[in-house]
């Protein structure tokens, strides 16, 4: 016990994490359109491979609801064999980024973009799983899923089987929401597991005709990618999917690590090593043809709250998943699909940051707008392009805020008109600057002082010089331009320069 001083705490925590992870692994796999066993494979790899590696000592990895929409689209477009190639390539990219020490740069991604990404995923996930809860087939695109909900509701109301299926899904969500209010001993059982067990028991006891999980067996479900699958790498679309997998999985994992660090007082996350650990896990998942993995905040927070002290807890949770998948795979066939849909509806709801949106709107409306636009773009277009739109908006907003130029005009009625430009003059502020300058009288001498600028980009410098050269009417003194001393002018000038 001296060698493992925290074994008792870690053992207890591993059981809790296993019970939380089990229904989520299965639910994410089913929602992603792949065999349920592949979700367990990813959970096992997250525990046994990623769990043993350095990086973040207490966060737990596995298949994540945040990638469900993207995985479903990839499998639907390129087929299940190509999924292994995509995940493998994403893992290799993560390994390379970790080796190049790029992990810390993910912390520079705008939080509004990340939360918008999760909100968009949550909306599409909820919409898709509402169809699954009713036993109906969901449309392909996120927008069609949402727009088709009224029609789906009408179809469900006319079907007894659909209503029974919806009741199982709604009951699952209700149990998960209310389970936290249960007394001590019952509360120790994870809500998701309790909801699935109760839904399974009710379905069996009353003989409710609902679809259940299809079981293939662990080894039958594992299908390493073959040569034909690797040939798909010539497809430009699949390369974009790989990049999307890499960036989203990495960002979600490292943001999760930062959140987990706030929950405990133990060793802090080493971001580059954690990125390598995630890359190693995804590489193995790709070789096995399984789902991609990320660090999952639900399991990680459960691990910390259960009293885990070292990485042994997450490794042991992988052992329990392996034993379940090897010894009790037939138990999966008893789980009703609407119960898993209910779990994912609940997970999708928690991905939408309602409180953050309200807080941002009160204090930082630009950030709130980025969050909402990113989420809507993911729903309307797709995951990858939606995130790119969010990042582009974030960059534009930052550039706009950094470009704060103050223009002051002093006209004493006699003598030259004095114009002072200070701050940061970039092309974003150029139209307003030129409008003010061109409105000044051309028959009066002008002095334009740029010495107060901290930054002057090339576009502004060229435009101001051209304006000064052409502004004055014949017979009027040319504009007297006092140049700024920043690097953008290419030349430091200590004395006034007369243009004209």
TrEMBL record:
Topology within the bilayer: Multi-pass membrane protein
Compartment(s) of residence: Membrane
Bilayer-spanning residue ranges: 12-31, 38-58, 78-100, 112-136, 156-179, 191-213, 233-260, 319-349, 369-396
Main location: membrane
Every SLC26A/SulP transporter domain range: 7-374
Keywords for the protein's UniProt record, in alphabetical order: Membrane, Transmembrane, Transmembrane helix
One GO BP annotation of this record: transmembrane transport
GO cellular component: membrane
InterPro entries to which the protein is assigned, alphabetical: SLC26A/SulP_dom (IPR011547), SLC26A/SulP_fam (IPR001902)
Record PANTHER family: SULFATE TRANSPORTER
Protein name (Swiss-Prot/TrEMBL): MFS superfamily sulfate permease-like transporter
